[in-house]
Design brief:
The chain is mainly α and 248 residues long. It has 13 helices and no strands. The protein starts with a helix and ends with a helix.
């Protein structure tokens, strides 16, 4: 009897255990797509797990990822938001998925989407990561992480990934950087980035942004925050579009 069959037997014996439905859904997801009878089966297993255990965060993350990969961005977004806001505020992969969902749900006509300050933060950070990655890859090739990122930042990101969620052990190390780290990377590669941004100005903005990021992540008030998150996002959106237009 394989692991999938064992989980099905466990569900028959104990249908009230939410984790068995979660583990079964994850096990089925490991199969090649051609061998999966229906993605709806996986979706329903995650939903059953949450019905029995609404406090659980792991099924919310996996259900959000499944819905995102199915192109159902509006449905996926709330699962990422709830998990990030209440359970795992420092999860790098969830922030990435949430930023992508918010971006996909933006106005299709190309006009700036009126996001909340929290959404704007996720979008802004996602753009900064893309900006760094594109330009370092362009200038350093496949070994951009070692050649373009200072050793202390690389070590910090590796440590954060090791201490993170099991589901994030294979995630890109850049996802574990914070705004202070982005500033250091840019300052260490001024000749590369200065063609696209005022490095001194944006490094100052990135440093100012980290306390705001922490406040938003932990739901602390931002009434007197000196940083206009939406303005930063709108300004940097134009920069990343210029870079993508040239290199992608």
């Amino acid at each position: 009897m394989n692991f999938e069959d064992k989980l099905k037997e466990e569900i028959k014996k104990n249908p009230g255990d939410p984790m068995n439905y979660y583990y079964l859904a994850k096990e089925i997801m490991k199969k090649p797509l051609k061998d999966i009878e229906s993605l709806t089966i996986i979706e329903n297993l995650f939903k059953k797990s949450l019905e029995l255990g609404p406090h659980l965060w792991a099924p919310k993350i996996m259900l959000g990822e499944l819905l995102y990969k199915m192109g159902r961005f509006n449905e996926a977004e709330p699962y990422f938001k709830e998990t990030l806001n209440k359970k795992v505020p420092n999860s790098s992969s969830i922030k990435e998925y949430l930023a992508k969902c918010v971006s996909k749900n933006s106005n299709p006509g190309g006009t700036f989407h009126e996001n909340t300050r929290r959404d704007s933060l996720y979008l802004f950070e996602n753009n900064v990561r893309e900006f760094i990655r594109i330009l370092l890859e362009t200038n350093h090739g496949e070994d951009w992480w070692r050649k373009g990122v200072p050793p202390k930042v690389r070590a910090k990101c590796a440590s954060r990934r090791e201490e993170g969620l099991d589901e994030e052990r294979e995630a890109d190390l850049l996802f574990f950087a914070d705004f202070y780290d982005y500033r250091i990377i840019i300052e260490s590669n001024k000749t590369i980035f200065s063609s696209y941004i005022d490095t001194k100005d944006w490094c100052k903005k990135l440093e100012d942004m980290e306390p705001i990021r922490n406040a938003i992540a932990h739901n602390r008030p931002l009434k007197n925050a000196p940083v206009r998150v939406k303005d930063y996002h709108a300004s940097f959106q134009k920069i990343i579009e210029k870079v993508k237009g040239r290199f992608e």
